[in-house]
Amino acid sequence: MKLMLIKSVIVLPVLFITIILYAIRGPLYESMQKENKKTSKSKTTPWPKILKDKNGFIVFTSNRDENWEIYKWEFGKQKPARLTNNPVSDIQPEISSNGKFIVFTRENKNGSDIYRMKTNGLKQKLLVKNGWEPGLSQDGKWLYFGREYNGRSAIYGKNLETGEEKQLIPELNKSFSGVSNNTPKPSPDGKTLTFFSKKGGHRIMCIDIDGENPRVLGSGCLPNFSPDGKWVAWTSSRGKSGTSIGVNSPDGKNAGTLSDLGFPRGHEYYPNFSNNARFLVFAICPDGQHNHERSNYQIYVKKIGKQNAYRITNNEYTDRAPDIYIFKKSKKDKKKKKSVTK
Q: 292 falls in which pLDDT band (50, 70, 90)?
């Protein structure tokens, strides 16, 4: 009898503690599993050899932290640095021609605004209220952007020195009235504008900055000038198994293709030239996916004129809208390299 009583005294508390542990184990275990699953989605991809001796960085937008934020990934680093951190979406980053600033779109409850920040994420400054898809001039004096006008998207320009804003398209060319026109990007000399227009379909246009001499470069979206002004690249609606990266001269007379990789990652989007005009950075998602909010877009880079493209990001999230900047080697760096090779 005493033995049974002793067993009861020992077993019952142990049983009670065991029940309590199991009760809290479920949620705790699920939480740990979710965290493990989240962190295991991002893998490290070795930096490609084509960027091995380069000093620079790539910026892009990602939803990897459950919200659209802007990231900066320096060549050779193990992971990107998060530049923005707030409850709204920060998207469409573009690096200034001197590599010191990033302009981007910040969405809010009432629409979106355009901001500028340093490339370390500091000194964020509002540039334009009620605007999106920024395109910065090479001298940094003008900002071009989209804004709603009569229920559609129109193209505007703002002088960042004087604060003057004015509508360009369709105000300077009425033939573009009644359709959406957006994603404006200026040529390096500031004399030409390329943009996407729904006039006659999904067209890539070039037009003189005064609204004269419009010409069609191709079909697609998201055009960008090369830094020497000789080429415009865009997301072409024609590809082996989805979209490709098209290219043409601003006069529309030299159409071609910069990248068309095909299956299994057939949707190539968001092209951008490096500031030295030697590399192309863009995003690709698998065939059958074409949703900019949920598709598994990943960042790739390739040397212009070469076939191979190299993957930069490797995860299950959406990484999109990249831009790339490569610093010039200083005389000090060149002397150091010569002394090493002697």
A: confident
Give the whole-angstrom CA distance, residue 46 versus residue 63: 22
- Are residues 23 and 62 both part of a single domain? no
Block residue for tokens 């212009």: 304
122/124 Cα distance (integer angstroms): 6
User: How many domains is the chain built from?
Assistant: 2
What digits encode the pLDDT tens for the residues 94-108? 999 999 999 999 998
19 & 61 share domain = no
Contacts of 30 (CB under 8 A, 6+ apart): none
- Domain check: are 163 and 251 in the same one? yes
**Do the Cβ atoms of 302 and 280 come closer than 8 Å?**
yes
Tell me how far apart the alpha carbons of residues 126 and 135 are, in angstroms, rounded to a whole number: 15
For the chain, state the CA radius of gyration.
Answer: 25
Containing structural domain, residue 144? 47-329
Domain shared by 118 and 178, yes or no: yes
The per-residue pLDDT for range 168-226, each reduced to its tens digit, is 999 999 999 999 999 999 999 999 999 999 999 999 999 999 999 999 999 999 999 99
